[in-house]
Design goal:
5-stranded antiparallel sheet; alpha+beta; Arc Repressor Mutant, subunit A; 3 helices
Length: 121
């Protein structure tokens, strides 16, 4: 099983499955319901960090450091903009906000389904 390809089941606020988002980390490709979604490089990097840390709450600093580097200067709202863009492109519930801390990507288990690693190898 290729651990760098993921299928995310995205639900609405009632917990009903509404979208399938496929993420291929090796090829930096994303699709929603079978259609390719074009992400900016940093949007993909943020998504990648969150997918690799599925079901973990990540602090804003952790994500910022992994994507932009610990020595890089960035506007505090840089991450918020990228997460907002991901939500617009992939579905609002793809990323959960953890107030005053950071973000969390969940595997859809609240819908009775799990994120699956897809593909062969």
């Amino acid at each position: 099983m290729n651990e760098n390809r993921w299928i995310l089941m995205v639900g609405d606020d009632e917990g009903d499955r509404v979208d399938d988002v496929a993420v291929d980390l090796d090829n930096r490709m994303v699709s929603r319901n079978g259609r390719e979604v074009l992400l900016e490089p940093k949007e993909f990097d943020v998504l990648s960090v969150m997918v690799r840390n599925m079901n973990k709450t990540l602090s804003r600093d952790t994500i910022l450091n992994e994507v932009w580097g610990a020595d890089c200067f960035y506007d505090p709202h840089t991450l918020d903009v990228r997460v907002s863009n991901l939500r617009k492109k992939l579905g609002y519930n793809i990323v959960r906000t953890v107030p005053k801390y950071g973000y969390r990507m969940e595997d859809g288990s609240n819908m009775g389904e799990n994120v699956t690693s897809a593909g062969g190898s």
